[in-house]
Write a structure and sequence with these properties.
It is a single chain. The chain has 148 residues and is an alpha/beta fold. It is built from four helices and six strands, in the order αβαβαβββαβ. It has a three-stranded parallel beta sheet. The protein has a three-stranded parallel beta sheet with strand order 2-4-6. The chain is elongated, with a radius of gyration of 33 Å. 11% of the residues are buried.
Length: 148
Amino acid sequence: MNLSTLKPAKGSVRTNKRLGRGTGSGRGGTSTRGHKGAQSRSGYSSKRGFEGGQMPLQRRVPKFGFKNPFRVEYHGINLDTIQALIESKKLNKVDHAVLVENGLASKQDKVKILGRGELKSKVDVSAHAFSATAKSAIEAQGGTTTII
């Protein structure tokens, strides 16, 4: 194979229409733009979403809802997940670094510990937030909860 012999696949490259090159070309005169009107003139460009005078979609559809810019999004981790982590890694302390290390959360995530499942061992947990059931379950086993 030689770089000088490379060619595009047959049929993949088409020649451009040559517009406005006289009547003999078949595309002279109006150059396929039709007669009169804004679209036949040079420099024409319609506004985004313009539908030819019809009420555009973004104005037909009603506005609703509200996005709170101050909402704090938490990544939830349940007690059964923490219990499985404790059993597999033989831990007595779980914090954000441990969760990131084991792929349960990313560095940017704010972690909230949730109450699904059962905790069987004493563990010290530090996270950004705790649900009431998770906090009581951890403290019932003799562990501590620390909010970061």
